[in-house]
Design brief:
The protein has eight helices and 17 strands. It is an alpha/beta fold. It starts with a strand and ends with a helix.
Length: about 260
């Protein structure tokens, strides 16, 4: 497994290297700026894994992805959580906040070995174009997903389009729709049923309590215990948390 570190603070880079060595991960190269990284990637074989600081001495490391087609998996290491959403749309395995906790670092390495290396092995050992086959089946068996819900308000019925829905949530054994105009409506369904009825490209069940649409994600913040917190436009009843076991799939979904 070929690994490099891109970090402008050399003491921080060496500290991360020592932590990785404890996990039997050997760092082959350490780079310290956006420009240095661009030049290195243009002349060398891309590594399997990059530990990448976001704010480097000559700019944001996102510039690297604009100049070079990165083929490596990335674990972002930063003191700031404001770039989480942008980072997750790249080849990121994880997003670690400094100072880096050794246990969280170990979890990130495990994620990489489980997901990325396995996928890479499958790509190189198979000659079948699975993506092409998948698209063929999708085109042949188009599913009709639920586009609207009818709710009862007193003696009246109200039709709510999925475009109006900011999230579905469960509370006190009931299931509710929360709309972008900051209203809650009780519905006769469960999150388990909704998960099958909704378009998985647009809606994702992030926990036992919430299903959210892609369009409602305002911000994503790194939360405790390797979880994520999603900021929605109007829902303020409680924190909307991506459960730990859902984080990896959620990151793949938002890309």
């Amino acid at each position: 497994m070929k690994t490099i570190i891109i970090e402008d603070e050399k003491p921080a880079a060496r500290l991360l290297q020592r932590k990785l060595e404890k996990l039997n991960v050997r760092v082959e190269v350490m780079l310290h700026s956006v420009q240095e990284a661009i030049e290195w990637f243009s002349k060398n074989e891309h590594p399997d894994l990059i530990f990448l600081d976001i704010q480097l001495s000559d700019g944001l490391s996102f510039e690297l992805f604009e100049k070079v087609e990165i083929k490596s998996a990335v674990i972002f290491t930063t003191a700031y959580d404001e770039y989480a959403l942008r980072a997750f749309k790249l080849n990121s395995i994880d997003y670690l906040l400094k100072p880096i906790d050794e246990e969280e670092l170990s979890v990130s390495i495990s994620k990489f070995k489980t997901h990325f290396l396995k996928s890479k092995e499958e790509i190189f050992t198979s000659q079948i174009d699975f993506e092409k086959i998948k698209k063929m089946f999708q085109n042949s068996f188009e599913q009709d997903f639920k586009k609207r819900f009818t709710v009862k308000i007193g003696q009246h019925l109200k039709v709510i389009s999925t475009d109006e829905i900011e999230c579905f949530f469960s509370k006190n054994k009931g299931t509710y729709i929360h709309t972008f105009d900051n209203r809650n409506y009780l519905i006769e369904s469960t999150l388990e049923v909704l998960e099958q009825e909704l378009d998985a490209k647009e809606f994702y069940r992030i926990s036992r309590k919430f299903i959210i649409p892609m369009k409602a994600i305002k911000e994503i913040v790194v939360f405790s215990n390797s979880r994520l917190r999603v900021i929605l436009p109007t829902f303020k009843d409680e924190e909307v948390i991506v459960s730990r076991e859902k984080v990896a799939d959620f990151k793949n979904w938002i890309v």
